[in-house]
Amino acid sequence: MNTLDFFLAPQNGLFTVAAVITLVIAIVQFLSLLLGLGVTEALDELMPDLDTDVDADIDADLDLGEPGILEQLFGWLNAGRVPMLVLLIIFLTSFAGTGYVVQAFATGFIGLLPSILVGPLAFAAALPTTRGASRVLGRVLPKDETYAIALEDLVGEIATVTLGPVARETAGKAKVMDAHGNLHFVRVRSARPDASFDIGTEILLVRREGSVFEAITPPAIFDD
Fold first, then answer.
1. Own/partner pairs for 83-88, CB < 8 Å, 24+ apart?
2. In CATH, which superfamily holds the domain spanning 148-222?
3. The pTM is what?
């Protein structure tokens, strides 16, 4: 069996899918950083605040005796120490890698094993691997909580359009730096119906409506 046949074998389907998903996430992340699209931030807007939900659930569970299974699992995996997307990449990589190693070993003796047997083994092995890797990364990656700010604090800051054009009826994306020097990617639209902004245009964030900031052309006072 050659390498391509090994990876495309039905018995390795689960691990190949996990590997492809990991590769796609890595490519999207690279392009988002290169183009300033802020994919991670967009995903965060679609997902609930894990820390808030976990704290609320723990507070509620105190009356019942102990935290729920999901909260205990995320806590064990150190979900609060690294971004959820990083945690997902670590898990998928560990899952796929373990599965391939087991199948490669089995091929030399009895042939490829059914995925229904190797899958649970790879899943179980990926959990402690993910926990260990997240603990190491948690010590290296910067902590967002150190300079956490409210989104409302970005009002009054100058941003640069990264995905547009931005109009009153068409929201886009912009990058803006907060007072601590941290870069944020936010959704923006024009505050005026007769104004639009192309990619690369500097805008002034004047108010926030939900998850979208409204912007205008910066007055001359903001010019250097």
1. 83/40, 83/141, 84/47, 84/50, 85/25, 85/29, 85/40, 85/43, 86/134, 86/137, 86/141, 87/130, 87/134, 88/25
2. Nucleic acid-binding proteins (2.40.50.140)
3. 0.56
